[in-house]
From TrEMBL:
The keyword Hydrolase applies. SMART domains: Beta-Casp (SM01027), Lactamase_B (SM00849). It comes from the Bacteria. Coiled coil: none annotated. The keyword Hydrolase applies. It comes from Pedobacter frigoris. InterPro entries: Beta_Casp, MBL, Metallo-B-lactamas, RibonucZ/Hydroxyglut_hydro, RMMBL. This is MBL fold metallo-hydrolase. CDD domains: TTHA0252-CPSF-like_MBL-fold (cd16295).
Length: 465
């Protein structure tokens, strides 16, 4: 049996891990889109490093685009097998993949307006028709239920606590009269998350594929998030009469922000200003989360006893049309605008940043992980001039960050996630989904916990299990 790492290898995007059994069966764990990798991004997304038609099964840990965003491309290039995930992941993947296809098609159309020769025109990575076909191949499995996907392979999901529907993947593979247990963490959430249950404990594994996004970081305590939001909003909107622009992922982070702002209203502290969520995708994702209350932690369930809509409060408005979004730029009144994407690499938030970044009254508030090369990452690093839409802008607005708002666990969370494992029985632990220097530091922490064989795979590297 072999495993090869075709994405999220010494990087935090493009998750793809291919298990090949001795009998030729191939199981792909995730099929994510590469994002924010600079000039090489397009090439990485166009070439898998393996033959899609030879893959038999796909197991999807969760619906974030860096984990599911290349599924339609995989299907269009010949993958015809089943795609296994939780019910909530399928619901989220539907809206996220349709949105991604729309972006791919619009980008190609825009580029091709300037190209006259048909043979030189760009094709989208995939289309909405590819997404429709992909969704027809989805099969859903509830948490904690063993499911035979192949005569030699049993699959089970446990809750990863990362986003709604997120799962840790557990495979039991019988080969040559021997059972091998492989666990893939997907993305591990936080213990004590604002909204979701904590990651579940899981059975002993022989091999573990482990994310490591925050493998050398500790998040601040979750408790002050409401107070930190209140401080930024009061300082910017009430004192300076400016706007707060918050780049936020449509799934997970936006809902956490709405829940925290709702909490301020329940306490009578929320400033009476307009609050806009400028992302049609966020509205759909919020509805999905409402449809799956089983993922909420006990604290949220207590709040729901006194407030049926935990994501709604006075002054909140969801913006859907482009015209409404543009109108926000000419509205000079103090307000809060939450808009995607979270790393400010695409979407409507880039327009809001462009229109507000050079005014000292305003604040750009980051609320999660941002890769160093992304616009959000460069702003956090203190860059004083940035390029947006082919023009350079001075960074005069305040740039703030609430680092404790993360759907990824820090190194203490990751170690707690592994605490139920007998390290001496884990033959190999592979670190994925992390920057290389972070992974090296986390590998040392794992060694101190008794994990003897920790590997940090390179892109396309293959290992014999």
């Amino acid at each position: 049996m072999k495993i090869a790492f075709h994405g999220a290898a010494r990087a935090v995007t493009g998750s793809k891990h291919l298990i090949a059994l001795n009998n030729g069966t191939q199981i792909l764990l995730d099929c994510g889109l590469f994002q924010g990798m600079g000039d090489v991004t397009d090439n990485l997304n166009e070439h898998f490093g393996f033959e899609p038609s030879r893959v038999n099964y796909l197991v999807l840990s969760h619906a974030h685009i860096d984990h599911c965003g290349l599924l339609p491309r995989l299907v269009s290039e010949g993958f015809g097998g089943d795609i296994y995930c939780t019910p909530a992941t399928k619901d989220l993947a539907r809206i996220l993949l349709m949105d991604s296809a729309k972006i791919q098609m619009q980008d190609a159309e825009y580029t091709n307006r300037k190209i006259k020769r048909v043979e030189d025109q760009e094709m989208p990575l995939y289309t909405d028709e590819d997404v429709t076909q992909t969704l027809s191949q989805f099969k859903t499995i509830p948490y904690e239920q063993d499911f035979t996907i192949d005569p030699n392979v049993t699959l089970c999901f446990t809750d990863a606590g990362h986003i709604v529907g997120s799962a840790v993947v557990h495979l039991k593979i019988n080969e040559d009269g021997k059972e091998t247990r492989i666990t893939f963490s997907g993305d591990v959430g936080r213990y004590g998350d604002l909204l979701l249950k904590s990651p579940q404990t899981f059975p002993q594994a022989d091999y573990i594929i482990m994310e490591s996004t925050y493998g050398d970081s500790l998040h601040a305590d979750l408790d002050p998030i409401e107070e930190m939001l209140l401080q930024v909003i009061s300082h910017t909107c009430l004192d300076k009469k400016g706007k707060v622009i918050i780049p936020a992922f449509s799934v997970g982070r936006t809902q956490e922000l709405l829940y925290a702002l709702n909490g301020l209203e329940l306490k009578g502290k929320l400033p009476a200003i307009p609050y806009y969520v400028d992302s049609p995708l966020s509205l759909e994702a919020t509805e999905v989360l409402k449809d799956h209350p089983e993922v909420y932690n006990n604290g949220v369930k207590e709040v729901m006893k006194v407030d049926r809509d935990i994501f709604g409060f006075k002054g909140l408005r969801f913006i859907e049309s482009v015209a409404e979004s543009k109108a926000l730029n000419s509205d000079l009144q103090p307000c809060v605008i939450i808009s995607s994407s979270g790393m400010a690499e695409g979407g409507r938030v880039r327009h809001h940043i462009r229109n507000n970044i050079s005014d000292r009254k305003n604040t750009i508030l980051m609320v999660g992980y941002a890769s160093p090369g992304s616009l959000a990452g460069r702003l956090i690093a203190g860059q004083k001039r940035v390029w947006l839409f082919g023009q350079e802008y001075d960074v005069a607005a305040e740039v703030r960050a609430i680092k404790s708002m993360s759907a990824h666990g820090d190194y203490e969370d990751l170690l707690q996630f592994l605490a139920g494992q007998d390290a001496s029985k884990v033959k190999q632990l592979f670190l994925v989904h992390g920057e290389f220097d972070v992974q090296q530091n986390f590998a040392q922490r794992l060694a101190a916990q008794g994990f003897r064989n920790v590997e940090i795979p390179q892109y396309h590297q293959e290992f014999e299990l």
